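To whoever is on call:

I kicked off a structure prediction for a single chain this morning and the downstream step that reads the tokens threw a length-mismatch warning. I double-checked the sequence; it's 83 residues and nothing unusual in it as far as I can see. Pasting both halves so you can look.
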Amino acid sequence: MLILTRKKDEAIRIGENIRIVLVQVKGGQVRIGIECPSDMRVLREELYEAVRQENMNALSISPDQVKTLPRQAGVAQRNQPDT
């Protein structure tokens, strides 16, 4: 991990497309501004972790749970042999 010291209104560059600016320091909080391409996703770590955990939970459903998804979604099921 690279650790840098910055003062208010100073910036850090990551590559050519990302600029991070220290906007405000107040008490124990720091506000930062992030300039990056609009197609780049920027998330707070706690939100990223929550999404990652939900994705992991979605991957761990059982075959029996998969069979109930159409009914839960209100979709009529066709008669299909069990596999």
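Update from on-call: the warning came from a stale cache, not from the record. Cleared it. Sanity check on the structure: The CA atoms of residues 41 and 48 lie 10 Å apart.
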